[in-house]
Write a structure and sequence with these properties.
Elements lengths: L5 E6 L7 H17 L3 E6 L5 H4 L7 E5 L17 H6 L2 E6 L2 H5 L4 H13 L3 E6 L9 H13 L12 E4 L15 H19 L1 H6 L1 E5 L7 H6 L5 E4 L6 H13 L2
This protein binds 2-phosphoglycolic acid.
Length: 257
């Protein structure tokens, strides 16, 4: 497990509705990112707003996109943006395989293609994995294994240092903090994830790769996941749309050793 700075990723999803609100939210997040030490904050606005927010990264504050096309481009690929375009527009990260994209039909093979394109555009892909249902026999771990093995297939060992894994159980996304996974359970799942990474890319990669928790993260449960769960960071949806809550989460992340 890494001891470096915690990574907080703000996934705005399809929010807010107007460029003006996006500008305000971005400015608030940037202030938080630049003031709080011990945290790397990444904001992932809807791509259409990237031009409006006038991104300028700082040491602790970067831009991400929520998805990239499975095609290299440029070319005839209506309605999508390439990893290279995202990078040229200032993004340093991209989510890949978020459960809301998987629900829209993305397969592990497509996700694997996106991982490769993101890496070749020098974006850091955040591979999202997580089961739809939790069973008591541990079958859900096989779902995670498949998502990891297929999503990371064919990557070079040296590329693993530029990859982040976000464990987001689908049943915990968009719910209340009470429904979120528990820190103990996250800790066990993160160990399992590192085991798979170790099989794919060796012990060093397994040790150093960042494993984040996501799914109904709030200012109430953030500390548990970071401290007890030993998460390397958090993928935050709704709570990242409220600057006061985002600041509280970043302060917690900055204080956890
Ligand atoms: P949530 O979303 O924090 O609103 O549950 C997390 C996510 O889907 O990335």
């Amino acid at each position: 497990m890494t001891t470096s700075k915690k990574l907080i990723v703000a996934n705005w999803k399809m929010n807010p509705e107007t460029p003006r609100e996006a500008k305000d939210l971005y400015a608030a997040a940037k202030l938080i990112g630049s003031k709080i030490s011990g945290v790397d904050l990444v904001v992932c606005p809807p791509t259409i707003f990237i031009g409006f927010v006038g991104h300028k990264g700082t040491k602790n504050f970067s831009l991400g996109v929520q998805d990239v096309a499975p095609d290299k481009g440029p070319g005839a690929f209506t309605g999508t943006i390439s990893a290279a375009m995202a990078a040229y527009a200032g993004a340093e990260y991209t989510l890949v395989g978020h459960s809301e994209r998987r629900a829209a039909g993305e397969t592990d093979e497509l996700i694997n293609t996106k991982m490769k394109l993101a890496l070749s555009a020098e974006l850091t892909p955040i591979l999202c994995v997580g089961e739809k249902e939790r069973d008591s026999h541990g079958d859900y771990l096989e779902v995670i294994r498949t998502q990891l093995e297929k999503g990371l297939a064919g990557l070079k060992k040296s590329q693993f240092k530029n990859i982040v894994i976000a464990y987001e159980p689908v049943w915990a996304i968009g719910k209340t903090a009470a429904v979120a996974d528990s820190p103990e359970s996250f800790f066990q799942t993160a160990l399992f994830i590192r085991k798979i990474v170790s099989n794919l890319a060796g012990k060093e990669a397994a040790h150093s790769i960042k494993v984040l928790y996501g799914g109904s993260v709030s200012s109430k449960n953030a500390q548990g996941f970071l401290e007890e769960g030993k998460a390397d960071g958090l993928l935050v949806g709704r709570a990242s749309l409220d600057p006061i809550t985002l600041k509280a989460i970043c302060l917690i992340a900055g204080s956890v050793k």
